[in-house]
């Protein structure tokens, strides 16, 4: 079975400071990896995903995540956060086959302090 | 592209009534749709997976007679909460995936907040 761990439930950080949200997963087979963001009272938005190829993936708003197979990690980073980045962030995995479920981590609440 | 909508966004109902929530893929055909439930400050819990034209597959612990799912077309799935009770109050989120978009990616609707009085 697959599982996703997000060790930090809450991460407060000052505006313009860097941030890293940690994600580790366990799976006996190859998986796709995702980061989703959820703003208050809204659904989830896909932030970025790793399918194959380059282990470093980037989003359009400055976030990046690096797939590390040996450490089974997919940490999310941003060099300088903005107030608007305050949200809940979910790491997720799915199997590389059709009709598979997405397994979500428990989420990390990022609070950017002005 | 890959937009998923839900209707309604908010619903308040009396205990004992049934509530229907719609999930639509607006610009792609969703061969598979998923329904999730999210409690405050918690992650998403998958309730069921539905493929167009076939019966939904429910996760363990989810009552299929309580949460009726219909996926009658490639762009529409509905979740009906039958005889709703206050403990059914939650945030319900659907997602969709299809072969015409990145098939490995689920695209999520904005969610429906249900409050049962």
Q: Secondary-structure map with pairings?
A:
The complex is a heterodimer of chains A (114) and B (117).
Chain A: E1 3-5, E2 10-14, E3 19-21, E4 24-26, E5 31-38, E6 44-50, E7 56-58, E8 64-68, E9 73-78, E10 87-95, E11 102-104, E12 108-113
Parallel strand pairs in A: 2-12
Antiparallel strand pairs in A: 1-4, 3-9, 5-6, 5-10, 7-8, 8-9, 10-11, 10-12
Chain B: E1 4-7, E2 10-13, E3 19-25, E4 32-38, E5 44-51, E6 57-58, E7 67-73, E8 76-81, E9 90-97, E10 107-108, E11 112-116
Parallel strand pairs in B: 2-11
Antiparallel strand pairs in B: 1-3, 3-8, 4-5, 4-9, 5-6, 7-8, 9-10, 9-11
Name the overall outline of chain A.
globular
Provide the structure class of chain A.
mainly beta
Please count the beta strands of chain A (DSSP E, at least 2 residues each). 12
Mean pLDDT across all amino acids of chain A = 90
**What Rg of chain A do the Cα atoms give?**
14 Å
Low-confidence stretches of chain A: none
Query: Can you summarize the main beta sheet of chain B?
Result: 7 strands, mixed
Radius of gyration of chain B, rounded? 13 Å
Distance between the termini of chain B: 37 Å
Strand content of chain A: over 45%
* Helix proportion range of chain B: under 10%
- Please trace the helix and strand order of chain B, writing H or E for each element: EEEEEEEEEEE
Main beta sheet of chain A, described?
A: 6 strands, mixed
